[in-house]
User: Fold this.
Amino acid sequence: MPIRLRLETPMSEEELIVFSEENNPFRMEREPNGEILIMTPAGSKSDLLNAQIVEAISLWAREDGRGVVFGPIAGFTLPNGAVRSPDVSWVSSRKWNGLSEPEQASRNRKDTPPVS
Assistant:
């Protein structure tokens, strides 16, 4: 169960990134209302299963050729303002290639909601 942090003023995208970096190895997500979810690192068995899932979806995506796959560290800003870091994500090549180089390099992928 994640820890929920309710702040008087919601964190900006940059503040959330800095907060996440300063509190590694915890994983941070943001709810649409600005509440921050703090999750502990995965256990060994859970991470092993996650690695196998990412591997399987990555293999499928390479063969399929219609999109790119991200692991659990990528952050995605959803249209409702929430920031999520799913265990595995797939984004269509059309959406991915429609982003500029700086957008592809940014820490949170805006306007590219993952399929997870």
User: Anything to note?
Assistant: The mean pLDDT is 87.
